Amino acid sequence: MSYSCALQKPILLQGHERSITQIKYNREGDLIFSVAKDTVANVWYSVNGERLGTYNGHTGALWCVDCDWDTKNVLTGSADNSCRLWDCETGKQLAMLNTSSAVRTCGFDFSGNIIMFSTDKQMGYQCFLNYFDLRDPQQIEDNQPYLTVPCAESKITSAVWGPLGEFVIAGHENGEINQFSAKSGEVLKKVKEHNKQINDIQTSVDLTMVITASKDCSSKLFDSTTLDHIKSFKTERPVNSAAISPIMDHVVMGGGQEAMEVTTTSTRIGKFEARFFHAAYEEEFGRVKGHFGPINCVAFHPDGKSYSSGGEDGYTRIHHFDPQYFDFELEA
Amino acid sequence: FQLLVEAGHFDSPPSVFYCLTSTTKLLGDLLREKPQEADGIDSVVVVDNVPQVGPERLEKLKNVIHKIFSKFGKITNEFYPTVDGPEGLTKGYIFLEYGAPTQALEAVKNADGYKLDKQHTFRVNVFTDFDKYMSISDEWETPEKQPFKDFGNMRHWMEDPDCRDQYSVIYESGERTAIFNNDAKDPIVSEERARWTETYVRWSPKGTYLATFHQRGIALWGGEKFKQIQRFSHQGVSLIDFSPCERYVVTFSPLMDTKEDPQAIIIWDILTGQKKRGFHCESSAHWPIFKWSHDGKFFARMTQDTLSIYETPSMGLLDKKSLKISGIKDFSWSPGDNIIAFWVPEDKDIPARVTLMQLPSRQEIRVRNLFNVVDCKLHWQRQGDYLCVKVDRTPKGTQGVVTNFEIFRMREKQVPVDVVEMKGDPESKTAFAWEPNGSKFAVLHGESPRINASFYHVKNNGKIELIKMFDKQQANSIFWSPQGQFMVLAGLRSMNGALAFVDTSDCTMMNMVEHYMASDVEWDPTGRYLVTSVSWWSHKVDNAYWLWTFQGRLLQKNNKDRFCQLLWRPRPATLLTQDSIKVIKKDLKKYSKIFEQKDRLSQSKASRELVDKRRSMMEDYRTYREAALQQHHEQKIARLQLRGGVDTDELDSNTDDWEEETIEFFINEEIIPLGE
After folding, report:
1. Domain spans in chain A, listed from the N-terminal domain onward
2. What is the pLDDT of residues B511-525, one digit of tens each?
3. Into which CATH architecture does domain A11-325 fall?
4. Who among A208, A331, A332 is closest to B629 (CB)?
């Protein structure tokens, strides 16, 4: 490892009182959304860290957030057993879809017309993957998804839409990855390359690839359509989140252990690091310190010139890369 | 039987009848009393090597014999055969009869080998044994030939052309054990097995065997392919120890002890696999219970007020008795000679003392009195050139504990002793370690965070010089290189893995580094490399072992899932003489050139390999990306449709959509006091 990412001073987003569970940029990258266990969903200007606003309403920890391609609507999922739709600009709650158990993952499809979200296996209810078509207001009014897919075996822990809204790629607690058709709900493809829980799945900006982050201390790159396993990135800590650079052959990973398992490791100030791997060589080439606890979520800015990380410490840090980052090359 | 015809008249049948009956009865009794050859012989012992005496001294001899042999039971009969009639000398062997065969056996067990005087050592046997040995068949049956088990070259690992040392690694919390060859670039797997051991492993002192633990006993493995050389059955074995010569292995199991058959500790002959002797064991708290002399000729253990020294290969007590040393607290063999050092605490008016005893003569070659002693620890220098006794004392009139080091110079006449006093806080802890192959020692003393590391040199002129003291060290352990000169001060576990590499030739700090939460430090046998590791047994995350050069330059970080233990394979003693080593050192420059060239070649080969690997990985990746992008391109129309004709493929695909905004950036904060 011969490059230590020397970055400009990061922008610190302080707006949450508990650990961050997910962060997301909108398609153009000018906004960044953060949700946390403190029931709060915030949106910020990514360029200077100024907070634009808060989406108020949830009464439980938030697990997920997504924004549609046009930055019109925002979707959030929570442990208060609801998935809510918001107007991005005004913050007004547009719809509330009640569920029987916590909403773990949610997202808009490519067109922005269909939303999916998964519910946890708890309180006697099993895990379900739900699809709503926003063009049919009746579905929202009646809280009737047009398709509900049960997942009896292993619950869904993270999911993203495929490139053209035809299927959802879901990661499960047992390390499996399944493609669920958005039309029929059947499993189109499945693979099992990880042997422990998938903590996060993210797509590349062109949606051709997905990257998984797993408790088995590795992250893997797959083709979104074929689910072919392309690359593996190994660490010695459980990986909570991973993202693919939009412009370089790089991936970033963040991890650590759950708060309960952390004992003495975390007493070292700022020890938790985001790790950068070369996507083709599978070699780690850089690390960025700064978080006071495990990193729960990472995301690249759509222009690839910066990235953000949300941590167990409740902070979101936006890092802009310095020129060295773009010039750095491993000998080949 | 006899018919007493004469008794009585022909016409008095009753008499005859009576006679017959009584004769029969009498005969029956007589028959029963008839001495059978077997009767009483089981209780008879034969004693050989008895002094031959004339009738005038016979009484005295009998008294002496009686005194010795009546200990085992009542002597009911005795026979002292003489030469040429009762006036001659006794033959030199005697017969003694006991009341019961068990007593005879006791006599054999205890009196056999009894040394009466310089010329007479009794040999005692049960009489029936003579019969047994006499009736051995004259026909000699050739014992069955055992096929020769060829394990190959047991020193195979020493022949590695690149002189790589081996080490064992246990990981996956004990599920996997692997043997690696240590290459500076990357470890090379030599052997890897699942469930090779059930708990941990141990190398024998010269590196020939790898011992693994199992419920039923231990197994020894060796040779090029690590074949199983030997198995020792000892149910529930938990601890083992090897003799330094690798001839014997000692196993301990808490399960196996019975009063009649001591089985807690068993000593085995490694080559034959035979059980040599079993011992009782009260507590395994201070393993090894038996301490071996450096040459494997003796082993000893300490029990209450007793030091028992045994010799090999007989496994019997040296001189047939243990040493009574009242109050003995600790003992230790010199690693260079057959000398034992032990100490006893104060006893009423007699001060505490340290004694050096030569074996097998048991001559006390040095005794040193110590006053107001609280505790002592014995530290031998690796070659046995020096002994350090760390003495904790409470001087008269004070409350605190003061530490002294009493340095015994073993190679000098009459073993002079020099004392080094540790000044400073009396309540602080100390650590001590000798330099192997040298005459320096290092001491850690003080209370965290003010721990000092002091280096001393034991000079030939009778002085012990303090060379250097480093203060405020994060260290709780001292690790010398096995070759001497270099060492590491380590702050393990609670001190977060701070490491300081020191060159003691001029006492410079070469490097101060860290392996966070390191729990163990292991030097390789040559002193070129050091391994620090975080064991899963002590810390549940970041389990890995790191390889450093002796100067503290980090070479490798090896993460291993639930890494538990790393042990270097020891090397046997060098075959080079001191003189040939001197010659090689003189020509070192010549050898350096050859090795440097070799290193450069392998470096560039590794770089080339890495570069080639990367190149091919990139090619594969590019190929994949091209195909994926091709498909992406083909889906463009579908994408446009899904987004109502808006092209979002690039960030700048829709510049007409862009708005101009003015944003504020926080630059600086300045507090300007307003005017009075």
Report:
1. 11-325
2. 999 998 899 999 999
3. 7 Propeller (2.130)
4. A208
